[in-house]
Here is the input.
Amino acid sequence: MSTGSEGSAPARLRGLPSRLLSLAAVRSDRLVSEGLAAMGARPWHYAVLAALQESGPASQSGLSDRTGIYRSDLVAVINELAAGGLVERQPDAADRRRNVITVTGAGRRRLRELDERIAVLEDELLAPLAPPERAQLTGLLQRLLDHHSGA
Amino acid sequence: MSTGSEGSAPARLRGLPSRLLSLAAVRSDRLVSEGLAAMGARPWHYAVLAALQESGPASQSGLSDRTGIYRSDLVAVINELAAGGLVERQPDAADRRRNVITVTGAGRRRLRELDERIAVLEDELLAPLAPPERAQLTGLLQRLLDHHSGA
DNA sequence: CGTATATCAGTCAGACTGAAATAG
DNA sequence: CCTATTTCAGTCGGACTGATATAC
Here is the structure.
């Protein structure tokens, strides 16, 4: 773990939005990843548990759609969660190509813990910004995303 | 190239600043990388040429400091730029452990082209935002970075 | 001597591709 | 026969580590 603040970047790079975005995301990703790793979890775990909690049991391809995790990578994520007893993987009786993933009681408890941890981490991330500024930032980012994701 | 907009993420994830930041950065990085790749360049090329142009000839470790490129990865970047005749690598007479990297005339010309291309790409990135909003965004990102990089 | 520089080899996590096996 | 789902194997670029040769 080093990743040190460059010792004074070229002027051309200093204010570049794409660069600021990239650097901020690296910091942010690391903060969250490490914060969750300290509890033995990964960001994808949170995403999957949240999706299951909110929309109920789902196939892996359904989870892939809702979380953004690649179908192929989801296999390992579900394996990890299942190994911890947080979800269960059962063949779907109605369509035997599918697995139905369900969250367990332990998974729901875990999700609540992760909720709390995430809240703390997000607060730490946004620490230097006042509440209205935080809303501004997320609003602006959301608009960027909407623009670059839409049709 | 696929990376598709998730089809409705869980509510818990939807507004998460860390997630918005991460997703926006992915879009942004891709936009810039692909925009430069279309000219046969990579983001690191721009960073190195800019550093050389603005601060003059430098050792590789100096460049590493100013650009944030790892010492070990910089070797390949310089190789690429040298192969294109954009920079020259010469042993430093004063300290023979060092290489002095200098930008060539072609390198300066290339930098100007990249400057223009970058400007277009940044504009494309920020397209949905009005000028004052763009300033707001970069200001907020800068403050996040300052907070998480500083002491 | 200890330290800095450039280079190389290699790890590691993440995004992504392609092809299989199975089943609709 | 064509398509969808899961899984596996593997690629690819980026960040990062560790060791080495060389020179201060």
Observations:
- The two ends of chain A are 39 Å apart (CA to CA).
- Chain A touches chain B through 61 residues (CB under 8 Å).
